[in-house]
Amino acid sequence: xxxxxxxxxxxxxxxxxxxxxxxxxxxxxxxxxxxxxxxxxxxxxxxxxxxxxxxxxxxxxxxxxxxxxxxx
Length: 72
Ligand SMILES: [Zn+2]
What we know:
Layout: E1 4-10, E2 17-25, E3 28-32, E4 36-45, E5 51-60, E6 67-71
This protein binds zinc ion (ZN).
């Protein structure tokens, strides 16, 4: 199982847009193209009945080093 997600996060401090993807595997999202820390906060049910992980990613802006939170 490898669920791939796209991340697009706008820095709340300087407006820099960071883009990347992450792949789900082995109980966590693994960043691909973006450097972020991922924390799973629970599970959600999708409308089609599947379960997926709900999580929070913290991305450090490469421009100004502000930490941005992003919900997956
Ligand atoms: Zn920034």
